Amino acid sequence: MHIPENYLSPSTCGVFAVAMVPVWMRAVRHVREEVPRQKMPLVGVAAAFCFLAMMFNIPLPGGTTGHAVAGTLVAILFGPWAATLAISIALAIQAVMFGDGGILALPANCFNMAFVLPMCGYAVYGLVRGREERHTGARAGSGRPGLGRELVAAGVGSYVGINAAALCAAIEFGVQPLLFSDAAGRALYCPYPLWVSVPAMLVGHLTVWGAAEVVFTVGILAFVRRVAPGFGLGGLAGDGVQAAPVRAARPVLALVAALAVLTPLGLLATGDAWGEWSTADLSAQVGYTPAGMAHGWEWASLMPDYSLGALPSWLGYVLSAAIGVGALLVAFRLLGAGASSRVDFGPRHDG
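Predicted structure:
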C-alpha cells in the first residue's frame, strides 16, 4: 500500500500535502494534551508494531504481496490522533531511510495509512464495543469481563480500517490516467484506471491481508491487555486512566524485539505489491514508460529495500528493523521531553 515515487502526479502529491499539514498539527496538539509525558515513549513502542507489521510481506496467488499495518491497534491503545502521528513518523522513516514509499507520495501514504485507517478502524471499534462498556466497563487487565468483546471490536475495526485505506489508495492510483495523459492518450503516471486499480487493491485486502491485519491487531492487543495492562491509556484516549510506569512496557518491548528478529520471514514472499513495481517492470506490463515516471524525481534512500551493503539479506532486514524501531523510540522520547504532563484527577486512596 506504499505508493512509490512518480506513481502520483506532483500536483496530486501537493494536494495531499496541503490536506495533511493541518491533520498533523492537530495530531501533535491532541497527543500533547491527551498522552501523559511519561507515557509518550510508549507511543513509540506502539508505532514500532506498525513499522514491523509492514515488514512482514504476505504473498497472494498471482505473485503480488501485501502486509498488515496495525494502525487500529495504536488507535485503541493511545487514541486515533496518536495513531495518526505514530504511523506518519513510521512511514517517514520507511520512505527516507529504506525507500519504502515515495518522498513526494508520503502525504498521500500518510492520508491512507496514518489517517483514514486508524480513524475508520477506531470509529468502528467504538461502535462494536459499545459506548456504555467503553466508559463504564472494567479497566484493561487480565481477565477483565469486557476483554472478549473488545477483541471482537478490535478485529472488526482493524478489518474495516485497512480496507478503507486500500480503497483510498486504489482511487488515488485510478484517477491518474483519467486526469494526466499526453496527446496520444498515454498515462503520465500510474497507467491503471479505477476499474483496474480498485479490484486489484481490494481483493487482497478483503481476504488475506485483511485477515492478517485482524490477527496482528487482536493478537497483540490480547497480549498487551493480559501481561501489560498499564500499557496504553486504558481504552479511550483522555479517559483519565492513571499513567503506569514505563517499566510496565517491558513485556511489550520483549514482543517488539521478538518480532524484529522474525522479520526475515517477510523475505519469503516473492513479487511486488500491486502498484509498487519498478519503472522497468511497469513498462514491461503496459508496453511503454509513462513520461512522468521516466522523467520523475527519485530519492536515493540510505538502505534501499531494507538492505545493508554486502550483508546477507536476512541480516540486513533484521538490522533495518532494529534501526527503524530505534528511530521511532528516539522520536517519541524527544516528543515526550517537550510535552506537558497531564494532571490526573482520578480517585485518590488515602491511608
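Summary: Residues 135-143, 235-245, 341-351 have pLDDT under 50 and may be disordered.
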